[in-house]
Design goal:
The protein is an all-alpha fold. The chain has a single domain, classed as Na+/H+ antiporter like fold (Up-down Bundle). About 80% of the residues lie in helices and about 0% in strands. Helix 10 crosses helix 11. The two termini are about 35 Å apart. It is a multi-pass membrane protein. GO terms for molecular function: antiporter activity. Its main location: membrane. Pfam families: Na_H_Exchanger.
């Protein structure tokens, strides 16, 4: 009972802090999820552990941390399932998809290569925990991520979700998410097996798992989706089936050597994309996941975010990482948009928005820490990089239209599959 009461107190603190700091961020024009990220860090050794060390030690015990870890992984699997369920590539024509694909390739691979080169150039300072190749690939993936759900929220808040520039940016971000998770899944497979042969086998199992989802599970789910579109109701039996499938997908991917959130994400991709089904699914699941489970993940990340002795070297590494992470994503996106015929203002705005890394980045970083790919100090540096790049997205977006970068192009509204704000 003492452990249970302790857990309840911790959960109250986590949810309250997430809502309060999230509301403060909304008041200054930032998305709520940025406040939730910051709240998680503040509940860790960064602030709470400093001002109330005894309370922090008594509340966040080893047992509580274990429980939070379990809830965090459950929350991530469900959250990535919702993200995958909202990714829809069917509403775009070939030309539009090609344009968004070009932006996604540039905004993914340029930061990827930047991160790899940076990690190799300063390998002795980064304290790699294992294989140098795996470490450098992970840093590259961390540089390349863009937060698809957060971007959807920002675009909708700014009323540009239905414009050509908004749709292009959003579709590109969803492609980057898919590329990022596939790359991370392959990397984790190689790390888990510690051999190329084992990695290849894990990749083969993952491919089989994916093919089963798309060739077997998706057609079966389509029947359920069609029925929901007709009746307008997702029954409890349907909801139970969805939840069981999420848990099975998470368990299977974890068993074959790929992080469990990948299973949730891939299952989400094969979910029915009908409007009523999406509304019913979000109504029943989204609030619980976003309000309750995701802040637990932020808090667990915050507990692991601390400098074991801040030095000038660590600070300079942080500045270098921050500058390269922002510029590689910004300029790669901006120049591609300009080549596609957009004005400098619009190209700069897209480059700014693509820097919103948000929750996706934190998930990637926790995977790296869990698998021993990065040190504690580098984890902390990259967490703060994720927070600051996310916070910079909207100010840079606004600055793009206030600077003298050329005449702003006004795009007409277009029809495409809208992504619900989260």
């Amino acid at each position: 009972m003492h452990l249970f009461v302790n857990l309840l107190v911790v959960l109250i603190l986590i949810i309250s802090a997430a809502r309060i700091v999230g509301k403060l961020c909304l008041m200054i024009g930032q998305p709520r999820v940025l406040g939730e990220m910051i709240a998680g860090v503040l509940l860790g050794p960064t602030l709470f552990g400093v001002i109330a060390p005894d309370a922090f030690a008594s509340l966040f015990t080893a047992e509580i941390k274990t429980i939070l870890y379990m809830l965090s992984n459950l929350g991530l699997a469900l959250y990535m399932f919702l993200v995958g369920a909202e990714v829809n590539f069917k509403g775009y024509d070939k030309k539009f998809f090609t344009s968004a694909g070009s932006l996604a390739v540039s905004a993914f691979f340029v930061p990827l290569l930047t991160g790899i080169c940076l990690s190799l150039a300063f390998i002795t300072y980064f304290e790699p925990q294992g294989n140098t190749l795996y470490f450098s690939l992970f840093v590259g993936i961390a540089f390349s991520m863009t937060a698809f759900p957060m971007l959807a929220r920002i675009l909708q808040e700014r009323n540009i979700l239905n414009t050509k520039i908004g749709a292009t940016t959003l579709l590109s971000a969803s492609i980057i998410d898919v590329l990022g998770w596939l790359a991370l899944a392959i990397l984790i497979a190689l790390v888990e097996t510690s051999s190329v042969t084992g990695g290849i086998m894990t990749i083969i199992y993952t491919t089989i798992f994916t093919l089963i989802l798309f060739l077997v599970v998706q057609p079966l789910l389509k029947k359920m989706g069609d029925k929901v579109e007709q009746t307008g109701l997702l029954t409890q039996a349907n909801m139970a089936l969805v939840l069981v499938l999420v848990l099975v997908a998470a368990a299977l991917t974890d068993f074959i050597g790929v992080y469990s959130v990948f299973g949730g994400f891939m299952l989400g991709l094969v979910m029915p994309k009908g409007k009523k089904f999406q509304e019913q699914l979000n109504t029943r699941l989204e609030h619980f996941v976003v309000v309750f489970l995701v802040p637990i993940f932020f808090a667990y990340s915050g507990i692991n975010t601390h400098f074991n002795g801040l030095t000038m070297t660590i600070f300079l590494l942080f500045v270098l990482i921050l500058v390269l992470a922002v510029t590689s994503k910004y300029f790669s996106s901006m120049f591609v948009m300009k080549r596609m015929g957009y004005s400098w203002r619009d190209a700069s705005a897209v480059g700014s928005l693509m820097n919103a890394r948000g929750l996706m980045e934190l998930i990637v970083l926790n995977v790296g820490l869990a698998y021993g790919l990065i040190s504690q100090n580098l984890f902390t540096i990259l967490v703060w990089m994720a927070i600051i790049t996310t916070a910079l997205a909207m100010p840079l977006y606004k600055a793009s239209y206030s600077m003298n970068l050329g005449k702003r192009r006004v795009f007409p509204l277009i029809k495409y599959n809208k992504v619900k704000e989260r």
